[in-house]
Amino acid sequence: MSHGADTENIKRQFNIGSDLIDYSSNINPVTPMALKEAIIDSIDSIGAYPDIDYVDLRDKIARSINRQYMRSCDILGSGFDDSILDNQRLLSRDNICVGNGASELISLIFRLDIFDKVRVLSPLYSEHIRSSRIGGKGPIISPMKDIYGSDDKVYLSFEDMDLARDPREAIVVCNPGAPDARLRNLDFLVDHCRTYGKYLIIDESFMDFCEGYSYNSGFKYDYDKIIIIKSLTKIYGMPGLRLGYMMARDESIVEKVRSIQEPWSVNSLAQAGAMAVLEDLDFLEKTRKSYKKEREYLMDELSRMSAIDIHKSDTAYILCSLNDRSKYDTAHDLKMDMVREKSILIRDASSFEGLTPRHFRLAIKSHDLNEVLVDSLRQIL
Question: Domains of the chain, with CATH numbers?
């Protein structure tokens, strides 16, 4: 199995050690102090089994989602279906399943018997393709099709959408796109799934880095066949702890996933850390503002480099591609030179379905490290 975060292999291969700067993994460089303190304070909990039902954690996640959505609506103004905020439609712990990172939940969802095959909208995170194959559900791979509206929104469709009418087919999409970093409006896609009775699986692992939660999250849609996957690993800077969750308005979907999940997949320390920060909405807002500022800086600097083309980003990373003016034929060659000459690791994005050997991805980090990346790319390219 191959993932982008191959830092340890690279360190061993090039004998770099701790000097390697990793721009391949899209992790918040700021881990909340409250999370670290909670882990230290909970260290004695490792002597006992964690709650097998994760009741307190699931309660906290549900409250956090409800509060975040309502606060986002208040900030952004009117224009939303108020019925979504009716107490009967707010989430409870019965709408939540937690897991050992988003990847575990992806694997479990594709083992369910509620759909027979999977249509993935590419490009997207490779774990969806891998898990659908293991689960015996395909996948069917359909390229995304963006429709630009007069309201400046990008509406998501896919090729041959009118012909895809099988109700036993689930559609899978990453929003924002992984790896292309674009936020898309899913109105057309939700209408399509509602018309044919399909399940829609939305991977929102990087949604928390984006502005406009209420505009963009699948939470806003009143459709019971939507399954949303979220990662806490990225936004809270805790990849070593592994924690993600899925939510669905249909509680029976959540129960089906929990029924096939291994017991105690989320450890006590991960639970304690998450409990300490989940309702800290100010941290999320500060993170989004910081990422917006650094995203604009990086995109401006990268756009000045004649050898690469950049894709618009709405989240924690930027997708780029080498053009005809580049001295490099492939992103892999660029990656290797960046490691050898600058001790910098970027993500060769050629393994993503729908991309080319010339695509690569850059994680957005602190301003000082973003300056290091810009200077290094200028020298290498």
Answer: 7-21+282-380 (3.90.1150.10), 42-278 (3.40.640.10)
